[in-house]
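Q: Sequence in, structure out?
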Amino acid sequence: MRKRTDRAVAGVSALAVALIASGAAAEASVDAPADPTTDIVVQGQGGTLTTPFETRHVLDARAIDAIAANSVDEIVRRLPSLAVPVNSRGEAIAVLRGAAERQVAVFYDGAAINVPWDNRLDLSLLPAALVGSARVAVAPLAPLYGVNALGAVGFSPREPDGVVARGLIGSGRLREVQGIAPLLSGDTALTVGGSASARRGEPLSHAARLPYAQPGDDLRTNTDRDLASVFARLAAGGAGRTLSLTAFHVDASKGIAPESDRASGARFWRYPTVRHTLMSANAGLALTPDTSLMLVGWHQRFDQVIDSYTSASYDRRDAQEAGRDRTWGARALLTHAVGEAVRMTVSTNVLDSVHDQRDIAFTGGALPAVLPGYLRYRQRNWALGGDVAVMLTPRLTAEAGGGYDRVDYLDTGDKPALPAVGGWTGRTSLAWEMPSGWRLRAAVGRKIRAPTMRELFGQALNRFLLNPDLKPERIVSAEIAAEWRGRDAELFVVGFGQDLDGTIDQRNVGRLRQRINLKGSTVKGIEAGGEWRPAPGWSLGGNATFTRVRRKGGAPGTLNRLAERPAVLSRAYGGYTAAGFNALVEAQYTGRAYSADVNGVLVALPRSTAVNLRLGQRVAVAQRGVELFVRADNIADALIMPQLGLPAPGRTMRIGLAIGGS
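A: Exactly. Output:
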């Protein structure tokens, strides 16, 4: 851990010098355009057409501070309609409104950071210190979000006015330090930061009954983790232009909890090396008073090693998978306003990614004398789209758009070549601002979700049987929403649905699994929530999402469900702040879901409720706010089972000291 922390400090210093040398600057301009995927908000230019046509939810820096999160997965679990199960690979993956996780795009400061090999990102390996705000956009999305994006989660870096730092200790021998500081401010802003944390393991609920690969009842088997990061951002602008350069590097290692419901077939894996680096640039230009251009470019490097072991003792390796991903991405967004009543947008997205992979079989626990070479896989995603928003009346706005998404599989390793896949996308929507303060929305859209390279070519250390005939999913989604915002309260109610043809799922073939296209699936649901501030310092609120997820055309006598799709997700909370003291209590409920057993048969998972509490006291020390806080999650030590044999943490405690911040 000490070596990783030293590297983090050195990396911040080097990156700061590089960014200072590269930046130039003038005063920020309110006319400069904004990238819609930076904050998951579609900005209008030159008029009043700033109406969002999809459902959005936001967590700001204050709300994130209250979570005392160690990694990003702990943050986004507080967003409505968003579940974050941890799968058998140990990945914490975002799932929106019961849809599949590979339908969700993840952005950081405008850059798409899903690893294209599998179009997913393990959110437990993105440190919370990198995030100043978190946003989600869901429902039919505009073409500008790119290929495969039916929902989106966006993170913005933190840019505080002064130094912000935190240290905490917690259950499972968790230790963490993090800090962020503005080195330059004014016309040119430079912010740098870093974090380092380590834990021995996740606490295990005493209600868990795990018959295999769980020798003790204290910590969950093989759930240790080291996680370090460095970060820097330079921003400048003026005279109708903006420029920002952002970079982070994450260095991590962790264990993967085994599926402890089965006597055989469980993964005994460790990730000894995970390195994730992102460098991105955003440039905004006001070409005319009514026309703006936004350009985003990024390069992402992702390296990961998986060691497979023969048993839960983790003392003898039998295989290793080493992967290297190099991704280049770019987005261009041209917006033109015609008076105050019409806004036209043209967008293009390109993503080119190379995945090099080497699979090694060990002999007697030792490396072979001759190592195999790397196999190369490469794909290119591109999307072209356009939409027009028109203010029909001062209170009624309509929008329509369309585009085309395409995925080319350029290199396929040692597998046969495959043809490109593509399809048209589109969305149409209406928004009505009522005099009473209510806002009504309706939207319907179409999208495709292409199979990923891993779904087509990945065998997961001889765990999967390939299926070269895998086809894209074709999805039609819709929502109807009502929203109200007052001085001391806000409410929202959204009805949504999704009809999907060719759902990609799994089946058992002997001892192996194989990805297949089902006939399809449907998702129907209601999302509702709000907040009330009855008096200064008090806040009461919550949200709930009810979903009904079903397969189409299931065989007679079989359960027509999809795995790990909870029927209910809800959160209720109450907060109080006065004279530096703050308190937050929340309850998070997860309804019925199903998961596949060792034979591939879906069985019901238990419902669960986690009650969490946070207390803090802030005082002023040398004109800086200093807070001592304690947070307890899952106080009742409830059993939370997102996937069969893979329980979530039991009762956890954290105590910390924070300097600066909100």
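Residues 317 and 366 are 7 Å apart (CA to CA).
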